[in-house]
Design goal:
Elements lengths: L1 H47 L3 E6 L4 E4 L1 H6 L5 H4 L12 H16 L1 E9 L5 E12 L5 E10 L20
Antiparallel strand pairs: 1-2, 1-5, 3-4, 4-5
């Protein structure tokens, strides 16, 4: 009789364990589904913002460029995007300052914000507010950066930015 009770107790314990595992699996599935929804929303934000959003490796080679960025650079499709070096998309001397000052600071602090001059596909220079976000791997090593560049109308320069506001025109 004791053996029967022990077998019955094990079966009840196994049922409770199975129920807990099932509930845990449901929670994990819900978390995964929620993460996928958030990822889709973020991609929709990137794809619909009028600002340039690029993800690049530490050398500035783009692996993602949103539609606004592709339009600015006059790129027709995503295949062309993979050959874009962000060093070629900034005014002379600007990339050196970005790579030697801004990127190392973003790597240390996680974020850097300042002014820049972006060169559009037809050669037009656009003053921008540039935000760099360091992208790290699971060990904390910086793998690349997210570049967020928004058109910066004349007269609106960030504190401590590189681009100085020209004096107002008198007259």
């Amino acid at each position: 009789m004791e053996e029967v009770k022990a077998v019955h107790a094990r079966k009840e314990k196994d049922k409770r364990t199975a129920k807990l595992l099932c509930e845990s699996g449901k929670r994990e599935s819900e978390k995964l589904l929620n993460a996928e929804r958030i990822q889709a929303r973020l991609l929709a934000i990137f794809d619909n913002t009028p600002s340039l959003v690029a993800i690049a490796n530490r050398n500035g080679m783009a692996c993602y460029l949103n539609p606004a960025g592709r339009q600015l650079l006059k790129l027709g499709n995503e295949a062309e995007m993979c050959s874009v070096s962000l060093s070629d998309c900034h005014a002379a001397g600007m990339w050196q300052r970005i790579s030697e000052e801004a990127m190392p600071q973003a790597a240390r602090a996680g974020l850097w914000t300042g002014d820049s001059i972006f060169v559009a596909g037809e050669g037009r220079e656009i003053r921008t507010s540039l935000t760099l976000i360091a992208l790290s791997d699971h060990e904390g090593q910086v793998e690349g950066f997210t570049f967020l560049e928004a058109d910066l109308p004349d007269g609106n320069r960030t504190e401590g930015g590189w681009v100085k506001t020209p004096p107002p025109v008198q007259g």
